[in-house]
């Protein structure tokens, strides 16, 4: 039996006039919930102490047009988690209770730096970006682990994350270098029909041998369910945004290759807690192409998430995961709405241009051939 998802061209057309309000409503439930927990000092209360509960919230509030709330949370992050070297930690000896944020050491930092850059908070952004720049390996990518860990390696998620920070702050040369890394990473995959190797060594060799217990951080399988699909979704999304900035088709083609790889995986990709970035990436490709195939991807994945939202949040059994993941999903939902509406506006403008051309032609013909 073939477990690969099939994108059926005969599926009912997605009604974006219903989809977008549904996504906005879902995202705003998260915003309202976290706003209800927000204290005067920018914290979520005395019992919410891990950086994992906070680092995505500023971007969520920015996406929801609530910059003052974003500033409040960032003020608390600066006071509570920022180190003298520009790093961010829950405690001096602990990055986070979430081991994934120890493995991907600067992932939390990147979300914070994106937010402070958008709000022009230089007292956090300057030192924070300087800390990140130590992990920049030039055309060899961006380091995955804490800088003193050996052996040093890079990965497509961290590269895309750092790339987006640079793209948004107009560091285009660095952004392009990182985009080229991602293009090479997918081009050099040995057997995409089996899966995607996520990490490279300092010489840009793909790492195919790794500890079995860390396999999800090194490899996305096409055969197995519930893979960490966000590892692929982020590079896909970043490459589309880089294409929009540079108009270089190689970036767009690579973005489609990343996303189409994910869509070749086990059918669980549509109903998986790790697929939210796939929906985000699909919405960006839809914005550029208008291809309903990608809108269908957005609809399927977001429908799954909305169906599993409880009391405005996701993963409510664990407060750290809930505050972390809910803020991120809300971000992507709001971005998806913007991307869909952007495409609709382009279509309307083209229609208006067509109407204007038709009217102009009619008027020209009437003047040339008066009745």
Walk me through the topology.
Blueprint: H1 16-37, H2 57-63, H3 67-81, H4 99-103, H5 107-118, H6 122-133, E1 153-155, H7 156-168, H8 172-187, E2 195-197, E3 199-201, H9 215-218, E4 219-221, H10 230-246, H11 249-263, H12 276-289, H13 292-307, H14 319-368
Antiparallel strand pairs: 1-3, 2-4
Helix pairs in contact: 1-14, 2-3, 2-14, 5-6, 5-7, 7-8, 7-10, 8-10, 8-11, 10-11, 10-12, 11-12, 12-13, 12-14
Features of this protein?
371 residues, single chain, globular, two-stranded antiparallel ribbon, mainly alpha
Describe the structure.
- By secondary structure, this protein is mainly alpha-helical.
- The protein has a domain at 29-134.
- The chain contains 14 helices and four strands.
- The strands form two sheets. It has a two-stranded antiparallel ribbon.
- Helix 5 (107-118) runs antiparallel to helix 6, helix 8 (172-187) packs across helix 10 and helix 10 packs parallel to helix 12 (276-289).
- The radius of gyration is 22 Å and the shape is globular.
- The protein starts with 15 loop residues before the first helix and ends with a helix.
- 44% of the residues are buried.
- The model is unreliable at 1-7 (pLDDT under 50).
